[in-house]
Amino acid sequence: MITTIFPAAKLLSAQRIELAIQAMAGAANVSHLAAENEVSRKFIYEQKTKARDALNNAFASASADDAVLFSLPVTKEWLHQVVLALTLICHSSYRGVVEFMRDILGVSISVGTRPPTGHGKTGPVAGNSLGQRRQDARAVAAP
């Protein structure tokens, strides 16, 4: 039984990389590279394609994880719902809510700021702070 080992099979990965670089750079034409290394032109083109794919993957601008999943319209009412949800559902501290709004959403609020009541009145009010609203909401929710 005679086994034939093709010259391309004998090439080390470093040699394959060098062939791909030379083919991509146009340092020599593909026919000359193939004849010089005793491989087929098809083999040179395959190495060139592998190298180009590797470069494209290495320098790809966006991955699937960076894709926008959905868009959310943010209104003042929605922000007030987030504040209440963070305090009532997540049991977040008042300072934690302020920090979340500032760091994650880029919205500046203070602990003493009350949400609109529907009558166009907003702003700091004594006795109607975030803590007071939390207590009021719990009292209403209690059976």
Helix-strand makeup class: mainly alpha
Categorize the overall geometry.
rod-shaped
Count of all domains: 2
Q: What does the average pLDDT come to? A: 79
Specify the helix fraction band. 55-70%
Outline the fold blueprint.
Blueprint: H1 7-10, H2 13-25, H3 30-37, H4 41-58, H5 76-88, H6 94-105, E1 113-114, E2 123-124, H7 130-141
Antiparallel strand pairs: 1-2
Describe this structure in words.
With 143 residues, the protein is mostly helical. The protein folds into 2 domains: 7-64; 76-141, no CATH class. 56% of the residues lie in helices and 3% in strands. Helix 2 (13-25) packs across helix 4 and helix 3 (30-37) crosses helix 4 (41-58). The longest helix is centred in the middle third of the chain and has 18 residues, at 41-58. The protein is rod-shaped. The protein starts with 6 loop residues before the first helix and ends with a helix.
Task: Briefly say what this structure is.
The protein has two domains: 58 residues; 66 residues, no CATH class. Helices cover 56% and strands 3% of the residues.
Features:
mainly alpha; 143 residues; two-stranded antiparallel ribbon; rod-shaped; 7 helices; 2 domains
